[in-house]
Protein 1
Amino acid sequence: KHRRLVSSSMAVMLGATTLAACGSSSDDDSGARSGPVSLTYWTWAPGMDKVVDLWNEGPGKKEQIKVTVKKQASGDTLVTKILTAHKA
């Protein structure tokens, strides 16, 4: 149970960090938008597809931000994929 809690907490923190990184640091709130946005969220944590569904039905729909879940392996396999994606 402890391992699941730690994994879930890490997934939530990574998700929050990812979404925060998408924010704008500009004070100019001109309302200019480039249109709908699609994001792919890599996760190994169970149940994150349900969290994403809630996002897509609520704030995501309002802000035209659609998130798609792509389940990944955990451990070394995930780390390798993340490092490879970062280099690309």
Protein 2
Amino acid sequence: MNFLVCDSAWTLGPAGEIGCSGALTQYTTEEMSALVNPGLSNEDRAELISLTIALFAAVFVILVIKKVL
């Protein structure tokens, strides 16, 4: 699927036609997904994994301490 992007404002003509007051640019689905959601970087992914492991470890320790007491 392709997307049309207007670098200015979209306009509506007197007969109901849609126009662009600037320049039209065409993007593919892959280009749009890269623009909208670039994804996680390697550093972000590593930090997310380490924080998730730390959270599960903390919950496990709390449950073990609760069971012992």
